[in-house]
């Protein structure tokens, strides 16, 4: 198992980033690839979790150990796989997630993609009281970048990859038309809207 990787961030796509270390390029699935935009061609340290399946070996990456801890708690719940856990981590609202779990707010939890009533109830059962040491926010620096509709398109592509429906995203895309944000900021804002 891996704890973290140190290397150069060489590529960003809607679903993953690539970090080069020791002459190898590692594909790392992350919650919001565009939150790494300012780090392209720079040395990074990404916290990792490896998932080994019959047909694949996958790496999931995180900015902080706290973000990784949330992910690990989520995948410990029956019915939540790594992709669904990443979609939950992408919302970047630890406080809202913890409150929903501790207060048995099933309705809030069901707003996440692929989380039905049964899985939401299981989350409450398995995770209530387990997030005591978690900070309210991950504290990632938000850096605005000059952007355009290409940034909005990239953000929508990333949200589709997280499991959100095209019909939901169409309304959100229309809402943001004419604005000028980074793909990362569009994703964060869209996720907040989707959770309301």
Automatic annotation (TrEMBL):
Q: What range(s) does the Helix-hairpin-helix DNA-binding motif class domain occupy?
A: 72-91, 107-126
* InterPro entries for the chain: DNA_helicase_Holl-junc_RuvA_I, Hlx-hairpin-Hlx_DNA-bd_motif, NA-bd_OB-fold, RuvA, RuvA_2-like, RuvA_C, RuvA_C_sf
Q: What is its main location?
A: cytoplasm
State the Gene Ontology BP annotations.
DNA recombination; DNA repair
Q: Which UniProt keywords apply?
A: ATP-binding, Cytoplasm, DNA damage, DNA recombination, DNA repair, DNA-binding, Helicase, Hydrolase, Nucleotide-binding
Subunit record text: Homotetramer. Forms an RuvA(8)-RuvB(12)-Holliday junction (HJ) complex. HJ DNA is sandwiched between 2 RuvA tetramers; dsDNA enters through RuvA and exits via RuvB. An RuvB hexamer assembles on each DNA strand where it exits the tetramer. Each RuvB hexamer is contacted by two RuvA subunits (via domain III) on 2 adjacent RuvB subunits; this complex drives branch migration. In the full resolvosome a probable DNA-RuvA(4)-RuvB(12)-RuvC(2) complex forms which resolves the HJ.
The family classification in the record reads: Belongs to the RuvA family.
Q: What does this protein do?
A: The RuvA-RuvB-RuvC complex processes Holliday junction (HJ) DNA during genetic recombination and DNA repair, while the RuvA-RuvB complex plays an important role in the rescue of blocked DNA replication forks via replication fork reversal (RFR). RuvA specifically binds to HJ cruciform DNA, conferring on it an open structure. The RuvB hexamer acts as an ATP-dependent pump, pulling dsDNA into and through the RuvAB complex. HJ branch migration allows RuvC to scan DNA until it finds its consensus sequence, where it cleaves and resolves the cruciform DNA.
Q: What is this protein called?
A: Holliday junction branch migration complex subunit RuvA
- Write down the species: Streptococcus henryi
